Amino acid sequence: MHAAVLRYFDHVARQGSIRKAAEALSVASSAVNRQILRLEDEIGVPLFERSRAGVRPTAAGELLLRHVRETQIEFQRAQAEIASLGGTVSGTVRIISLESMLARFLPEIVAEMTARHPRVNFTVLTVHPSEIAEALRSGDSDFGVLFVDNRLSGVDVVAEFRTAIGALMRPNHPLAGAKVLTLTECARHPVIMLNDRWLLSAIMTTEFAESGARLSPRIVSNSIEFMRQVIVRGLGIGFVTPIGFIDEIRRGELVHVPLAEPGLSDSRIGILVPRHRRLSPPARLMINHIRQRLTEFGSFLAAPTREPAKRSKRNRRA
Amino acid sequence: MHAAVLRYFDHVARQGSIRKAAEALSVASSAVNRQILRLEDEIGVPLFERSRAGVRPTAAGELLLRHVRETQIEFQRAQAEIASLGGTVSGTVRIISLESMLARFLPEIVAEMTARHPRVNFTVLTVHPSEIAEALRSGDSDFGVLFVDNRLSGVDVVAEFRTAIGALMRPNHPLAGAKVLTLTECARHPVIMLNDRWLLSAIMTTEFAESGARLSPRIVSNSIEFMRQVIVRGLGIGFVTPIGFIDEIRRGELVHVPLAEPGLSDSRIGILVPRHRRLSPPARLMINHIRQRLTEFGSFLAAPTREPAKRSKRNRRA
DNA sequence: ACGGTACGCTGCCGTTTCGGCACCACCCCG
DNA sequence: CGGGGTGGTGCCGAAACGGCAGCGTACCGT
């Protein structure tokens, strides 16, 4: 329905080059070039700054770009909305997520969704924390399953769940019997840390700094899967939320001990949606589904190694 | 920039007829027809119900229509935004207004705006109260200068001013000396009323009903100008806000006596903007301008016949 | 200094799309 | 049973679009 120039303009801005955009679009660069020139002529001002390296949007270009991208996103949403009129939900749900959610939790959710709504497609990505705000605002993703960060603006938290970042280790680890641990206690043993590029790490480093503990991690990685393997092999203690290790904890292969530090013992994971954007029907369904699933074992997330009914005393304890 | 089919689709829906739309668009009806058929083919579902009388959007059509219209409005806004990058504000401001504001107040505002920003165009309309919500929501207008109505949803009140609906009459009218009047007192004299189709009337009829007063108006009209003329000619008392009669009141040609009924003595006029819609630069300027102007003589609106210092004597006399 | 390369841009030309015209089929109304 | 209204359809010229080859330029590495 929409003019081709919208896609062209978007791609050129993304690629920073007319020729690259043309290649990505599978059209001749001349065609793309002419569309851009014609567009600039219509708007009346240059939309790109030309340089040897390529093109860069001007202020006017940025403004129009926002309109174009919003239009494309809204069109997709409208299409999904129309498709769901026929009863069958379809469309694409675009999610950005913590890698820990992505390891065990979300695959199950996605499987359940596809079972009920076969025509729904998914894009599930982990992103650099610095790109979270942009990914949500730009509409590249419908919503995020992320740590709740008060610094994020223009974002609504539609659901929120307490979880405890804790020490993850094998049952035969010397610290495995503890009900709660401090970072200082853990620091005497080999530890395994997430790469500091990631949000979890960002939270933890600040906490470490406050507690005065100094950790020299034996292993650093940004892969939850890698961490799983090295922790299972007894190479050290990992600091994670239990979510990505539900199976191992349930089977007794690993033990998750909450940390005493207040900022870590009650981290909050939430469903974050961009404010002022309507959600597509499949995205709405997906959010409801995630919310329901999360509340179902919310207690497990908060205190993974014990049962709900008995927690009142113990909480007073910790 | 945007495909022609957007305009076609919009017009067809508005006109309820492909041929009428084609005429309004100055293209052949066959061209419009084919674009619609092609669009329906692309979306995959019928967008219109065909009947002998013309076409009517289906549910899917309504959905897509909302997207299309929003796209067009946002495009205009983006254009205006780009244009204001160059320093000169341009674009069109679309306002819906009370007719009383339209009689004296808004023309002055518009004149001042065009003096400062010659490239800004205006559309100022009075609309049927039942269409206010639709006009704001659909984006047909940027904002409204209207009575604040709590029943309106999805609308923000960015500025609000108390005003008093009162009895307007010539200085030699028997009631002209009163400081405050009740509807019952006025009911003994000939009155002039706004046509009941209009919001002001809607407010007043409820108030009349509560106060138990029965008015059999000598003259009914929906034209502020007509009311002005017949009141000046001494044909009766009008029930209005003083806004549309500033000049006459200041010159002493007419006297405005507030009404005692609480719902009338402190009516609220506000600037109403649709929530969740960005305003174009000229619309923002216009709103700020109106707000400033209104606060400047806000006291005049609230108590027109009693200026704190100088005018108290004369008013008491008349 | 000099190719090599990547960039945006521009004639030229075939193909696709668009729009105008005339016309068909249909329905309602007088 | 016409007359006027509706949406839909061949046909055809015109305009737009896209592909190809090529131009000028600026940068980079040898």
Mean pLDDT of chain A: 81
What is the number of helical segments of chain A per DSSP (H or I, 4+ residues)? 14
Radius of gyration of chain A: 23 Å
- CATH 2nd-level architecture of the largest domain in chain A: 3-Layer(aba) Sandwich
User: Element order, helices and strands of chain A?
Assistant: HHHEEHEHEHEEEHEHEHEHEHEHHH
Name the CATH superfamily classification of the largest domain in chain A. Answer: Periplasmic binding protein-like II
What can you tell me about this protein's structure?
2 copies of one chain form a homodimer. Chain A is an alpha/beta fold. The first copy, chain A, folds into 3 domains: 4-73, Arc Repressor Mutant, subunit A (Orthogonal Bundle); 82-161 and 268-302, D-Maltodextrin-Binding Protein, domain 2, CATH 3.40.190; 163-267 and 304-317, D-Maltodextrin-Binding Protein, domain 2, CATH 3.40.190. Chain A is 48% helix and 19% strand. Chain A has 14 helices and 12 strands. In chain A, the strands form 3 sheets. A 5-stranded mixed β-sheet of chain A has the order 4-3-5-12-6. A 5-stranded mixed β-sheet of chain A has the order 9-8-10-7-11, covered by helices on one side. A two-stranded antiparallel ribbon of chain A has the order 1-2. The longest helix of chain A has 27 residues, at 59-85. Chain A is elongated. Chain A binds chain B through residues 1-3, 5-6, 39, 42-45, 59-60, 63-64, 66-67, 70-71, 74-75, 77-79, 81-83, 85-86, 276, and chain B through 1-3, 5-6, 39, 42-45, 59-60, 63-64, 66-67, 70-71, 74-75, 77-79, 81-83, 85-86, 276.
